[in-house]
């Protein structure tokens, strides 16, 4: 079976396994997890979307202290942020006042910028020069693409529909991660307002394989060696797994989040409540209670709920923090990531 391990463009990475350990911004992808995944022969990925340029450089240096194997850095493609009027902010404060009171959080004044500056983050990535740069939420501009090429980075975009995959291929990426609706974390939909196609990974792969020539990477609900074999048999050249690595020893997943992940069953659904963009996570109180009318657009809502999520985690409660996870079930591996990777590819 052809995989990215021996694909022309990717062969130089010297990967042992056709596995990308997913970028998981917001804590789970610690430098230790990225390094452990890469050292074990997979491609570890830094989820750097919420990191400043300095943090990106520091993270990469930490990975490189642990391993000389290749790794990826991942960012969110920015989109124009709608104007947020004072009434919207007022509604958002009113809807979250009880949580801030419970957590003893003073409602600090809320204003932009709502996210790190993408160009500055990208410049940091160019300086760090990881062998692979991956991205989600759209297309990389021609200018950024040329700059990435100049420093020799391979490029992986993310698609949730065959149409998005086609746009990515036309833009000149080296591979495409197909994100099925089973996937944990943010849906990679280009347009944050567009309805979710809700295509599962089998359908998405089946529909895309006929049209797309660059290697396809299957993501969403892949938990076991059998799942990996199924995706490769369906034409994927690699898999990308996130949830399965969330409870590994190296993951930076918080205590209350880990406890929820380790419950016997995980019930997940998609929500905009935490960030303003659709994302899949384990059901909890914040998801249940947040009124859709009071949710700001991404990434404003993400910045707005950061103090609540942080204080909830610090207080040991999983009620008010995002618990991103895919639909895949089964006990999560709590040992070293390298042992999970060995188990997944032992046959
Ligand atoms: C906690 C968490 C954070 C994530 N953060 C990112 C991210 O920063 N960038 C990205 O491209 N994908 C992100 N994803 C999505 C993964 O790349 C991937 O699509 C997903 O984990 C695959 O589904 P699975 O979780 O069922 O394995 C995240 C997923 C999780 C679970």
Keywords:
347 residues, alpha/beta, TIM Barrel, 35% helix, globular, binds flavin mononucleotide
Explain what this protein looks like in three dimensions.
The protein is α/β, with parallel strands linked by helices and 347 residues long. The chain has two domains: 8-78 and 115-249 and 331-344, Aldolase class I (TIM Barrel, Alpha-Beta Barrel); 82-114 and 267-324, no CATH class. Helices cover 35% and strands 14% of the residues. It has helices spanning 31-39, 53-66, 86-102, 118-128, 142-150, 162-171, 201-209, 225-233, 255-261, 285-289, 300-314, 337-344; strands at residues 19-21, 44-47, 71-76, 132-136, 154-159, 175-179, 185-186, 216-219, 238-241, 268-271, 279-282. The strands form two sheets. An eight-stranded parallel beta sheet has the order 1-9-8-6-5-4-3-2. A three-stranded antiparallel beta sheet has the order 7-11-10, with no helix packed on it. Helix 2 runs parallel beside helix 4 and helix 6 (162-171) crosses helix 7. The chain is globular, with a radius of gyration of 19 Å. The two termini are 15 Å apart. The structure holds flavin mononucleotide. Flavin mononucleotide (FMN) binds at residues 22-25, 28, 47, 49, 74, 136, 158, 179, 182-185, 219-222, 240-244, 324-326, 328.
